[in-house]
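Figure 6 in text form: structure in, sequence out.
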């Protein structure tokens, strides 16, 4: 929770992962729900926030500093054009990007500063693209089923799922579900599940949990397979990553 009446000095981005709520900025309440990106801009005054009693919200947030000395006034121009709330439910990649940003910041492994910059640039690329085109965005008819499949994977992430199982739950063919995942997430459903597992593994390793226990906790039945997948994704073994976190 931010202090009341805090003057914001950067772009404060809140990505709402689910639920409903509102934030009061400069005396005005801004309602939001899952999939919204809420921005409190430099010079604005944050006052308070509230959650829906029946469906409280969850969020990731990040501070983005203005652009250096900014002699051309780019920050002010961006603040004028950037809406307080940008609905991004049609950009399901935003959730995983913010989750990876949060995990990378928490782990602070070697090279994390460059990883943070890369992830932030990818987030801004999605935001700026949406600022240009969001008014005309049209979602495919199967979009709600894609979200149903994504949520099914997230809730059952520790289980060994199959593509056919996820597709049946979402009432889609396996091939069409794979095509939708590749379009909106840049990977297949099973690659998406693997990414979730390895992201959770990085967080648990950074917190000091043993490699063996982490493998079991995130759903791997083979320690060798876990180590191989971790190294393929992160170019180091889980033990090497854990040692780096301990040194830091």
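Output sequence:
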């Amino acid at each position: 929770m931010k202090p009341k009446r805090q003057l914001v000095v950067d772009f404060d981005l809140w990505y709402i992962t689910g639920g409903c709520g509102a934030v009061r900025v400069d005396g005005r309440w801004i309602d939001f729900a899952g999939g919204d990106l809420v921005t409190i801009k430099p010079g604005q005054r944050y006052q308070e926030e509230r959650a829906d009693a029946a469906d409280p919200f969850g969020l990731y947030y990040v501070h983005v500093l203005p652009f250096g000395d900014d002699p051309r006034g780019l920050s002010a121009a961006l603040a004028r054009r950037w809406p307080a709330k940008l609905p991004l439910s049609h950009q399901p990649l935003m959730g995983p990007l913010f989750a990876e940003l949060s995990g990378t910041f928490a782990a602070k492994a070697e090279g994390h500063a460059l990883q943070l910059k890369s992830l932030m640039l990818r987030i801004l690329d999605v935001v700026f693209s949406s600022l240009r085109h969001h008014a005309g965005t049209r979602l495919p008819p199967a979009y709600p089923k894609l979200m149903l499949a994504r949520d099914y994977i997230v809730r059952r992430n520790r289980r060994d799922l199959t593509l056919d199982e996820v597709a049946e739950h979402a009432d889609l063919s396996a091939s069409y579900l794979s095509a939708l995942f590749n379009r909106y997430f840049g990977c297949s459903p099973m690659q998406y599940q693997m990414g979730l597992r390895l992201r959770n593994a990085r967080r648990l390793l950074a917190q000091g949990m043993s490699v063996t226990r982490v493998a079991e906790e995130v759903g791997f039945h083979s320690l060798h397979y876990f180590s191989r997948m971790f190294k393929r994704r992160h170019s180091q073994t889980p033990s090497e990553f854990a040692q780096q976190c301990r040194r830091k």
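Caption detail: DSSP finds ten helices and eight strands in the chain.
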